[in-house]
Amino acid sequence: MALKIAVLASGNGSNLQAILDKHAAGVLDVDIRLVLCNKRNAYALERAEAVGVPTLCLPHTDYPDRESFDQAMIKAIQESGADTIVLAGYMRLLTSAFLQAFAGKVINIHPAILPAFAGVRGAADAHEYGVKLAGCTVHFVDEIMDHGPVIIQAAVPVNPEEDVETLKQRIHSAEHRVYPQALQWLAENRLSLEGRVVRLASSDKPKLAAAGNCLVWPPLEEGF
Ligand code: GAR
Fold first, then answer.
1. Per residue in 179-212, pLDDT tens?
2. pLDDT tens by residue, 140-169
3. Is 180 in the pocket of ligand 1 (CB under 6 A)?
4. Residue 16 Cα: closest atom of ligand 1
5. Are 153 and 136 in contact (CB under 8 A)?
6. Which of 65, 110, 193, 223 sits most deeply, having the most CB atoms within 10 A of its CB?
7. What is the pLDDT of residue 211?
8. Which CATH number applies to 110-138+147-224: 3.40.50.170, 3.40.50.300, 3.90.190.10, 3.40.50.150?
9. What is the pTM of this model?
10. Residue nearest atom 6 in ligand 1 by C-alpha distance
């Protein structure tokens, strides 16, 4: 059965687009019940509307506090029928109440190899630090920012002299491969937790450990 998801985004929505594209290509078994944005000008809203996916904009500035805003989101998501929350460039911390409402079913993508460079400037911080391998991480969300169990990571080599914008673009390209893959593993019910270690049940699908110039682990499977 398709994974019923709500995608939360605050901005451009290129990860949302990657999810929409893989879904349209027939390799990602999701039912996108709602795209929810906390900013009126989020381009993610247009991307969803363009393909007839339901959207809702709830500007967080319309609410007196974080708790009441998250309660409004919980209500809207539950009404949509989604039970899995996909954070795709959603740039706000979630309350405990929100995480409890969708316990174990909230996932996020972060533009760094966690646990290094958590926070809102992941890729820029890695670039400034001078790492030789940057990258991205898809993980389950827990109460601590950018901390939950890791599902998949991609390591993106940093080219000497590369500016931060170019690096960010290359990290984005890796994100667009690994996020739909992680969602498909979730849809196939192949992820389980041992403590904070995510185990992936095996399959006989052909695998690809490299995506462009990066190392991806666990390897991407056919279609991603
Ligand atoms: C992505 O790079 C994502 O990893 C990052 O925001 C960007 C959203 O891009 N998220 C975070 O930094 C969360 N801490 P998009 O709107 O084009 O998908």
1. 999 999 999 999 999 999 999 999 999 999 988 8
2. 999 999 999 999 999 999 999 999 999 999
3. no
4. 18
5. yes
6. 110
7. 87
8. 3.40.50.170
9. 0.97
10. 89
Which residue among 23, 110, 127, 172 is the active-site one? 110
- Topology classification of domain 1-103: Rossmann fold (3.40.50)
Question: Residue 136's beta-bridge partner residues?
Answer: 154
Question: Residues 6 or more apart from 120 whose CB is under 8 A from it?
Answer: 91
Whether 110 sits among the annotated catalytic residues: the reply is: yes
> Which ligand 1 atom lies nearest to the CA of residue 118?
14
- Measure the CA–CA gap between 174 and 6, rounded to whole angstroms: 22
- What counts of helices (H) and strands (E) characterise the chain? 6, 11
For ligand 1, say whether the CB of 15 is within 6 Å of any of its atoms: yes
CB of 175 sitting under 6 A from ligand 1: yes
Residue 220: CB within 6 Å of ligand 1? no
Domain ranges in the chain with CATH number 3.40.50.170: 1-103, 110-138+147-224
Mutate to test the pocket of ligand 1, among 168, 172, 177, 179 (most ligand atoms within 8 A of CB): 172
